[in-house]
Write a structure and sequence with these properties.
- This protein is an alpha/beta fold.
- The protein is built from four helices and twelve strands, in the order αβαβαβββαβββββββ.
- The strands form three sheets. Strands 4-5-6-7-9-8 form a six-stranded mixed beta sheet, with no helix packed on it. It has a three-stranded parallel beta sheet with strand order 1-2-3, with helices on one face.
- Strand 2, helix 3 and strand 3 form a beta-alpha-beta unit.
- Helix 2 packs parallel to helix 3.
Length: 220
């Protein structure tokens, strides 16, 4: 899931969905918060209580060190470029969005910062033990994944998108917080990967709006 933006119902539904499908790992590709302040840190510590242990966060432009602290305190792992992590047999690597946006305060979001960040850290990604999954807030932060990365998880744009770049499948969940320019629907992506190769075997896009739920299988 991605871009929950402090909406309590999104945290609750994430926990319910993860439990109903017995998810191995829950991955958030960022923007749990609005500004990442102390109050949000307190709220996150309560909202994340029901998430499964071993959840993974790739911080977004609205997250902060307070966000990361609350996530770790709840038993999750926060991705950094310095090292990969292994959660329930799946290796992840990623890093924080280089933009830092505090709601309407500060400069506008700059996609070129994401591209330049990727150029700086791509050598570190190439040294990660393979196979592994990349999780980042903006897919521009993983422009050309190294061999051995069959899957990139991303968010930021508040709309679902599935695309393939060479051998790598990019999965963008949409906005789990439930408010985009086009709709108020809440979005999730469910990805089934092979146990040893981490190759995506199936992807479903889930959309929840009011009492209606739509599950769309993706043709890979």
């Amino acid at each position: 899931m991605s871009d929950l933006h402090n909406r309590p119902h999104a945290f609750s539904l994430t926990a319910e969905l993860a439990g109903s499908i017995a998810a191995t790992v829950v991955v958030s590709t960022g923007d749990l918060c609005g500004i990442g302040g102390p109050l949000e840190r307190f709220l996150l510590s309560r909202w994340l209580e029901r998430w499964p242990s071993g959840s993974v966060l790739a911080p977004g432009n609205h997250d902060s060190s307070a966000t990361a602290s609350a996530f770790r305190k709840a038993g999750g792992s926060v991705l950094t470029p310095e090292a990969s992590i292994e959660v329930h047999g799946i290796r992840f690597w990623g890093y924080q969005d280089p933009n830092r946006t505090k709601l309407v305060i500060g400069p506008p979001y700059d996609p070129s910062l994401c591209e330049r960040a990727w150029e700086r850290v791509r050598a570190k990604a190439s040294s990660v033990p393979r196979p592994f999954v990349i999780a980042v807030h903006n897919e521009l932060m993983a422009g050309e994944p190294p061999p051995g990365c069959p899957l990139v998880l991303a968010g930021h744009f508040h709309s679902p998108r599935i695309r393939r770049l060479g051998p790598t499948l990019y999965v963008r969940a949409g906005t789990t917080g439930g408010r985009s320019k086009r709709s108020k629907a809440m979005h999730f992506a469910i990805v089934d990967v092979a146990q040893h190769t981490l190759e995506p075997q199936a992807v479903w896009l889930v959309e929840v709006e009011g009492s209606a739920t739509k599950v769309v299988p993706v043709q890979l």
